[in-house]
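Submission sheet (multi-component)
Chains listed below:
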Amino acid sequence: MKPTIKPSLNPISKLSSVLVLASILAGCSATTTIDEYRPSGEAIDLNADERVVVLGRRDAGHYETDREFINCVAKRMQGADIGVVPEQQFIDSIYPWFEPRTAPKGLPRLKRLMQDPLIKGQVDQQSVRYLVWLDGSTETLDQGGSISCAIGPGGGGCFGFAQWDKLSVYEAIVWDMTNLQEMGRLRVDSEGTSYLIGAVAPIPLLTPVKNDACTSLGNQLKSFFSSPENP
Amino acid sequence: MLKKLFNKTAIKPIAALLLVGILSGCSSSASVQVTSDFPTVLSEPKPVSASIVFDESFSNYIAQPNKKTVIDLGTAQVKLLSNAFNGLFDDVEFVSDPEAVSGDHKLVIIPSIREVQVSTPSDNYLNVFEVWIKYNLEIKSVDGETIDSWFMPAYGKTPDAFMASKSSAIEEAAVIALRDAGAKLMLDFYRIPAIYGWMMEQQILEESK
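Outcome: structure written.
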């Protein structure tokens, strides 16, 4: 009986395969930059009975800060034992003073709102100490290539190649609802390219640009606050 | 058993249903009924009494901003405005006919809709659905004298979501527009110059200070 010889790749082929795979995967990772400003370098103290609310800005004409992103950032903060009031619950409890038309765009307007005992009472009742405004969007910048799919009696498939660039830009501003002052600002830029390869079956190689922006912003916001459980 | 289940006659209706489902998902027409509830307004009402007339055409209002879109706004807008007027005035009566106004209230307000407009991503080349509701408030004193006819536009938009239906996106935008109408009313009603003047005349501002 003849011994069977298993075909094996030589080291150069192996190395080149690894390099190709690595370059494909590297192409699917987002480049994320975070800029941060806060008056003092120390973390903000958050007592066990104090909570944070994360709200999206929705007054821009051509985009909306989507709720999915707000919820994602809020979840990341909750994971660090920071009490987070759900966005819609807070907006409903204080209706109509945080609607797109009426929400304070700056501290002078917030100060005026907080002079209303009903509004202040609601904020205090929910123990909201800090408000985080999130403003931004994820946009497709550039797209190229083409992919076409066909189906016939003998079968079908997709052929071609398409790619698109996505950019997420979000800004977070932290307001102190007790002392009515700004505590800091964060800005996250995340950019990446996704690909769709049509080789009979469509193979998507997606870059989670928005998810990366959320993770980075959420983690950075967590570092803004120090809770008793997480000093 | 499986052969029986997946024979050609069984597959045909399933395939037809699937196709209908896919095609209805791609349909460009939308029939929307706004059924949302609205939060109570957080406001201290002023010592003003008012009769609000929601006539039948307003309570059952169905907007048709274009040939392919129908929005049933009637019930939702009555809910929303009732809530907002309760936050504006400390004594409110709601009637369905101007003839039914009791005469015990100082103001009579008759809301109506001038126009509803809708814009979709295919119209505006943005990833948002937009709804505009243009209200008109006919504001009269109890003796029938017109104080003002106030134009009150409201706007709502919602982002386009992958695989979300056009109807649900328009409904969400309409709910945001209705909430905006409530916000506009609460924010600006007492800033209307004619209302401000009327309140000065009635010495209501002095009472509410």
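Remark: The domain at 29-35+45-208 of chain B is CATH 3.30.160.150 (Double Stranded RNA Binding Domain).
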